[in-house]
Amino acid sequence: MNKMTRNNANNAPRQSTGTDNPSHADAQNMFPYRAPLEIVKGISGIFLRYGLRSSSMNDICNHLKISKKTLYSYFDNKDQVVEAVMFYRRERFRAEDLIKQTEDVPSIRLVIGIAENISECLKSLWPINIFDMKKYHPVVYEKLMKQDNSHIDRCLQFLFRKGWQEGMFRKNIDAEMQTELLQMQISHLLDPENWPDLKHPAHLIVLHVFENFIRSIATPQGIAEFEKFVAETKGKITALRQTSGNANPFLTHLNNVQPTDPADRTGLES
Fold first, then answer.
1. How many CB atoms lie within 10 A of CB 140?
2. Is residue 5 situated within a structural domain?
């Protein structure tokens, strides 16, 4: 079981027994609190809808229709609630699971998928949650950042190895430097304090960041794979709008690009 240490024994997380929800036994055994995953998932949704700071313990109880006694039987304070929610979110996207699930996906498509996910996150309250956590729950924030950095490092290490094996990424690139540059840019965009200084929406800028990333590391074969994806969007974009009303952000953005020379796509246009 994954136990989380604390300086104050009285604030130690209440360990899961793994029996709160048999249908999620494996996930629950990894969970550092006794709260059923359904409750933590519900709280995560509340934070994303109303914000972390604005959601009090009373608000959580009211929205989930549970008593304060029930909530406090799982958590001693809001710090523990926040930590549980962030742990839940991270466990859904563990690097090892992502790697296993994407073994058959071309590396260029994986980079595009990461860009799409981050772009969607930037359109939600997720960055505001991070900002509130940094300001009002700093201990949880520091722990989360360490987990995030480790997760990103493992994913990118896998991504580079895969790209090299496929011939999609150049072998003479400095993978460590590229990883650091990408992390710095994403971290900057994920911080709402930086948004007032941006001339364009963060969820669109991140798409430029990832196209630049692809073009800086890709071989001619990798560029061709990326251009193939761009070409495919021309037909898909209309279908996506007709069926869902909300097209994929990367597809939408790339579909709006009209380069004068198809062989010279130097960047995305806003």
1. 21
2. no
CA 120 to chain centre: 9
d(CA 258, CA 256): 6
Collapsing DSSP to helix, strand or coil, 169 comes out as strand
Which residue has 């130690």 as its token pair? 12
Residue 234 pLDDT = 67
Cα–Cα dist 257/83, whole Å: 41
- CATH number for position 138: 1.10.357
Q: pLDDT value at position 136?
A: 92
pLDDT at position 114 is 85
Please name which of 63, 65, 30 lies closest in space to residue 47, comparing C-alpha atoms. Answer: 63
Domain that holds residue 70: 11-91
Shared domain for 156 and 65, answered yes or no, is no
The pTM (predicted TM-score) of the whole model is 0.67
Radius of gyration from C-alpha coordinates of the chain: 21
Low-confidence stretches of the chain (pLDDT beneath 70): 1-33, 92-100, 234-270
CATH number, domain of 74, equals 1.10.357.10
CA 186, chain centre distance (Å):
11
Going 166 to 171 to 177 to 181, the CA torsion angle's sign is negative
